Amino acid sequence: MAKRQMKEKNATVLVLPFLLFIFSIILLVSSPSNLKINIFKNQDYIEIINSETITNALLLMIGEGVPQFKDFLEKEVEIPSITEVAFESITGIKTDNISTLLLHEIPGFNRATTKIYIAGEGSDYSNLPNESPPPNFDELLKKEDSNKEQAQNSENKSNEESSIKKINDPSVFIYHSHSWEGYLPLINKDVKPSEASSINNEENVVLVGTMLSNKLKEYGITAQHEETNMAQALHDKGWDYNNSYTLSRELVQTVSSQSKSISYYIDIHRDSARKESTTTTINGKNYARLYFVVGQEHENYQENLMFAKEIHEKLEEKYHGLSKGIYLKTRAEGNGVYNQDISSKSILVEVGGIDNDKDELSNTIDAFSEVFKELYDGAIEVNAQ
């Protein structure tokens, strides 16, 4: 009897602080962007929701109002202490799993969650891809705005290209969740490798997207290229780097709803690795190496994985060593979905690294486009049957 009374007391005492915690989470998630409340990252919400300790606490709260359900729970569910719930809620560290402490607190340790599905030449777990540190948007935008004439010319050019790009029935959508990712040889300034960021579309991954769009056009494949300045767009919304894929998802969903003809979605990034890792020579020509990232956090990720595998294998056949392989990621490191649930032919491709120059990038896009054309034509033939 005393034990039962103690359990009831623990469950009752738990209700008020836990309700306050749930209310605070709802407030944080639903807060207007201009409040700039960003205590947790998106993946932290997932960890909280998936927590066994917090799940048990919620069930016991429900049991307080349903006596029959409560009797069942007391036999099947271990009542968590207030300390366990509070600690796990605030830190995201599970008290019964020490690996979550390692993932949160040891820099770079969560890279171990990245899986190599196919390793390209020279790729292994000792040289996994690594994201560049996020730029300071305020500083980046202020720096670029210091040259008003250049910014105005870039804006005018973007407006002109936007009107040209309004084509009928595009098949491919090219975009950039991290459009500021730049290449040092294109930036042509004395900047640190960790600061290889630019909103000038002649210096960042948007240029690579333009190369791809133009090359596909030569092959008769219509592509719509999204050139949104993501740094400015995030800044305008009061969002930060962690909202990059939330923003790009808005763009992808809008395009998907407006252009039913689009089947292929390509998100182009660049790696933070240095030249020796991101460059290869094939038949006397230098190429910026590329690799593919596939998110596992949606039920149809295998379809995207098979599409990336087809491209990788074709590249290996024609340009051996150009592809560094295919990497699988969960929410433990990164977004985990990368908008790839929108289409079975959606890929995230990292083209080159911070040291690759325009010729190397162009050579890579030529090779990628050639392979993409073969797969595209094959898909059209299959669909026609």
Descriptors for this entry?
single chain; 385 residues; alpha/beta; Aminopeptidase; 2 domains; seven-stranded mixed sheet; 15 helices; 9 strands
Q: Which SSEs are present, and which pair or pack?
A:
Layout: H1 2-30, H2 42-49, H3 52-65, H4 67-76, H5 82-91, H6 99-105, E1 115-119, H7 137-145, H8 148-164, E2 172-175, H9 184-187, H10 205-218, E3 223-225, H11 230-237, H12 244-258, E4 264-269, H13 275-278, E5 279-282, E6 285-288, E7 290-295, H14 301-318, E8 323-329, E9 345-351, H15 358-384
Parallel strand pairs: 2-3, 2-4, 4-9, 7-8
Antiparallel strand pairs: 1-8, 5-6, 7-9
Describe it.
There is one protein chain. With 385 residues, the chain is α/β, with parallel strands linked by helices. The protein has 2 domains: 2-106, no CATH class; 137-384, Aminopeptidase (3-Layer(aba) Sandwich). It has helices at residues 2-30, 42-49, 52-65, 67-76, 82-91, 99-105, 137-145, 148-164, 184-187, 205-218, 230-237, 244-258, 275-278, 301-318, 358-384; strands spanning 115-119, 172-175, 223-225, 264-269, 279-282, 285-288, 290-295, 323-329, 345-351. The strands form 2 sheets. A 7-stranded mixed sheet has the order 1-8-7-9-4-2-3, with helices on both faces. It has a two-stranded antiparallel sheet with strand order 5-6. Strand 5 (279-282) and strand 6 form a beta hairpin. Helix 3 (52-65) packs antiparallel against helix 4 (67-76) and helix 7 (137-145) packs across helix 11 (230-237). The longest helix has 29 residues, at 2-30. The radius of gyration is 24 Å and the shape is globular. The N and C termini lie far apart (73 Å). Mean pLDDT is 78; it is low at 29-50, 97-111 and 156-165.
